[in-house]
Amino acid sequence: MAKGLEVFVALSLVIGVLQSANAEVPAIFILGDSTADVGTNNYLPESGIRADFPHNGVDFPFARATGRFSNGLNTADFLAKQFNFKRSPPSYLSLNATSAIKRRRFRGINFSSAGSGLLDTTGQTPQKNVVPMGEQVYQFSTVYNDLLAIKGPSETKNLLSKSLFFISIGSNDILGNYHSSNPMPKEQFIPNLGLVYEQHLRNLISVGARKFGIVSVPPVGCCPSQRLLTANWDCLEELNDQARAFFSTVDTLMRNLSSEFKDMKYSLGNAVEMALDVIDNHLNFNITDVMSACCGNGTLNAESFCTPTANLCSNRRRYFFWDLFHPTQTASRLAAFTLYSGEPRFVAPINFSQLPEA
């Protein structure tokens, strides 16, 4: 077969697979923290955890600072794009949910809030205000009630059973405990987080969620802010070990839940392995800097958040980190592609592309 024809056939097969998957995804619901937030915290007047100002969004259409902790799109956006959405659905707090549901094509909602965690206390201080996972689940329950009232029980059940629920959370819980004045030992803290996660998932399952795309905690010890705490700006391995332990806990949790709820399907992304694969082999991905923040100040550009007066790197596509904690658009795109079509080493028992037909 001629090479051009081979390429055409391969592309046709890919397009066919994508169209098949897209047809099965009526809506996407996203819960999580700043890795998935598309502007929730813009609507929290007391929140000190916001990104609705430059240089954030410098590579977003029209250079808009939308509240994403990124130079452009984040992982939630790129995942949604894989399923033929323009980008992530809008933030719950930006919508009148009832009106949104009444529209001809209701495509889902993003509940994620930067700084939030599985624990209600994570990210909550007098200077900060976030929407924790428990509140996000409650917000979804109000959407569920609206769906019931507008579409009826049968249509609501059918919609939710085919919809995808993406969840990316846990980093702030681990960072908060590790840096607290009286941290709980890993051997106690991580299992406790798992129990809280389980309750949140059970609450979602109880109102119709059936297809979960879970992103575990990345190697947070490799963030520029945490590298500053080591002698040679290496990754802070204690934190990475906690991320690995969290992945194992969530892996066991999802296996158990899927055994109990036979119609529940899930895909679990191992964000530690995914991120370290890029960091360790960054030149293969055309990334030259995996230590510094693209936007910030001081050593590794990691001594302050990205602000309008911060230093801004010129070639953002060559950086892994956007600011002292968050990935660039380039890194987020790589993460989403791996979650969507990656091998079992990175995402299992199936990848995200297989969820619609599971």
From TrEMBL:
Database matches in InterPro entries: GDSL (IPR001087), GDSL_Est/Lipase (IPR051058), SGNH_hydro_sf (IPR036514), SGNH_plant_lipase-like (IPR035669)
Keyword list, A-Z: Hydrolase, Lipid degradation, Lipid metabolism, Signal
Gene Ontology process terms (BP): lipid catabolic process
An annotated Gene Ontology molecular function: hydrolase activity, acting on ester bonds
Signal peptide: 1-23
Family: Belongs to the 'GDSL' lipolytic enzyme family.
Protein name: GDSL esterase/lipase At5g55050
Gene that encodes the chain: LOC18607467
